[in-house]
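Running this now, will post back.
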Amino acid sequence: MELNFLEVFLYSFFGVAVGYALLAGFTPIFYKKKAWGQLTRNELKVKQGTATIENKMDLLIRSFFTSLFTYQVYLIALLIAVLVYAGINYLPL
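Update: finished.
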């Protein structure tokens, strides 16, 4: 089975978007250098470590859908797609 580039890009985009949403929803990585006044209530609770599962899931879903408008997610997905596509189609197996 041979995948075309658009399929590889779509799979890599969804993988990067889910990874981005998981990091944003469950870890304070994206919020360490932001002041508390710049954060939403859920982001602040995740940063402080007092978030409930409801706060984390809300932030997870919101982060997944906002990743559709984040150019960094597209760039990382494009890089991964190019590497995977080149590996699948141009490396001898």
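Helices lie at 5-26, 41-48, 53-66, 71-90. More later if anyone needs it.
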